[in-house]
Amino acid sequence: MPRKNNGGDPGNAEDRRRRREWLVQTYRADVDAGPIEGLFSKRFRPVARGTGVPACRCYRCGRLLTVDTLSVDRIKPGIKGGTYRRDNIRPSCSPCATDTGNELKRQMRRAS
Q1: pLDDT score of 2
Q2: In whole angstroms, what is the distance from residue 29 CA to residue 50 CA?
Q3: Is 70 exceeded by the pLDDT of residue 72?
Q4: For residues 110 and 91, what is the distance between their CA atoms, to the nearest angstrom?
């Protein structure tokens, strides 16, 4: 029996991958991502569109992201009823997603 996703559940690995692919296509950057030679980081250099890996940019800092490096950030956070529907998600790099979550936790602590 298939599992029903109420929108708050991030889904299985295939669902999450499709969501990240959709984000890259929807928020596609004007350049592609090319590897930085000799480094083992998940950072990329911009290359002409069509010559590298399709990429988008972090909504907050502008870092170039690929399907394998982006984090899905909910515009309306889950704790406030936000879901993983397409109208409530945006591409984010991992550090910015963490910062956003930490800011929300601080706000909630101050409010209580």
Answers
A1: 46
A2: 11
A3: yes
A4: 28
C-alpha distance from residue 67 to each of 9, 16, 46, 47 (Å): 20, 10, 15, 16
39, two tokens? 């480094």
In sequence order, the 6+-apart residues with CB closer than 8 A to the CB of 28 are 54, 55, 56
Q: What is the 3-state secondary structure (H, E, C) of the chain?
A: CCCCCCCCCCCCHHHHHHHHHHHHHHCECCEEEEECCCCCCCCEEEEECCCCECCEECCCCCCEECCCCCEEEECCCHHHCCCCCHHHEEEECHHHHHHHHHHHHHHHHHHC
Domains parsed from the chain with CATH numbers? 13-111 (1.10.30)
pTM: 0.81
What is the pLDDT, as a whole number, of residue 37? 67
Question: What token pair was written down for 59?
Answer: 């909504």
